[in-house]
Amino acid sequence: MRRWLLALGVCVSTAACGNGSNGDAAASGGAVGTDSGGTGSGGTASGGATGSGGMAESGGASSGGASSGGAGGSSGATGGAASGGQTGSGGQGNAGSGGTTGSGGSVSRCVGDPFPTADPTKTGPFSVTADKNVGPLAGVVPDPIYGDEQQRFHVYRPSNIATSGHCHPILIWANGYRDNPEQNPPKCVVNAGSNQWCGQYGPIVNHLASHGFVVVASLSTATAEGDPLPTTAGLDWILEQAEDASSPYYHALDTTKIGQLGHSYGGMSTCKTASDPRFSALGTICGTSALEGVHTPMLFFCGGKDSTVQCSRVHDVYKTVTDQPAFFLNELNADHGSWVYQGANGVSLSSAAAWFRVHLMDDTANRNFFYGDNCKFCTDGRVQAEQNALMKVP
């Protein structure tokens, strides 16, 4: 029997809870999953070398690190004209931009062409580079994995960010408890023999980067803790980098189009900062907490076979979002972590890419995944989907 496992914290309502098997007293998480076959080897860590995503401008090979399917794991944009989209709740986009506008970010000094539409169910058109161990030290100490060693960030981004001709949206990624975007030996590793499951989000962060997003991922393994939260520290830093002439991100980012996505404990982190006026769109995967001040479209994903964070609890939080577009997506056969290894066409990776393409890139061609009575996910047999009233119009 293959066993999908995740070393994560779980966030429901305003507190973390769960039944993980790692026995961590400080958090309720641990390695969890549902039986579905023999234990595999987990995913090989992604990122690192230039070109770790798809072929440049070709959409070729799958993004993310290679995986043997094994022990599953825990696991914005242009100033050009757009054809429509959802109006945000404030902020100002680049001069001449159409479609969505930012929700509180500063005016972007990047000048670039609009992003053409792209298929979110396939690897995006950009080759991917990972900038590792950059940015400020952030996160609580002691860290659940690294102890007294405070951590920095990895940034997953298009390799040609300086010459792409586009202004790339920012996506903040929030890990689950005791997890990282990729393995970081010797403390953060995937090792079935010692029941270690740290560093398995490579498929999703690389997929998003291949679609043109600059994904800022904290290496803290407690992303819902700290003052400021490590995700907030990462956002503050990348915005500074966008105006630093010595930075690879200088005037390459659309600082008016910013999103955040988190899994499990990272979903709690995302919910905690939902009122930050700099965000233009949000998403959570298998984790939420009580929301205040939501002013952006918000995607809620859960796994129908998740025994750690039940879909009913995610749905309860989704129902509280009534004055902004909100979409609930239950992948019926997914558990707390198996979703990450289902490839670009999997519900989680494709929905995340489509959601942020629509709301951060003005990719109006992908609105039909979520908007309208006959939206693509509304009629997808793999999921149970629900729209709030603001998403009924195509």
List keywords for this structure.
9-stranded mixed beta sheet, globular, disordered N terminus, 394 residues, Rossmann fold, two-stranded antiparallel ribbon, 21% strand, alpha/beta
Strand and helix map with partners:
Layout: E1 2-3, E2 6-8, E3 11-12, E4 15-16, E5 30-32, E6 35-37, E7 128-138, E8 151-158, E9 168-174, E10 190-191, E11 196-197, H1 202-210, E12 214-218, H2 230-241, E13 253-263, H3 265-272, E14 281-285, E15 298-303, H4 311-318, E16 326-331, H5 347-361, E17 383-387
Parallel strand pairs: 9-12, 9-13, 13-14, 14-15, 15-16
Antiparallel strand pairs: 1-6, 2-5, 3-4, 7-8, 8-12, 10-11, 16-17
Order of helices and strands: EEEEEEEEEEEHEHEHEEHEHE
Could you list the spans in which at least 5 consecutive residues all have pLDDT below 50?
1-104
Q: What Rg do the Cα atoms give? A: 19 Å
- What is the tally of helical segments? 5
Sequence of strands across the biggest β-sheet: 7-8-12-9-13-14-15-16-17
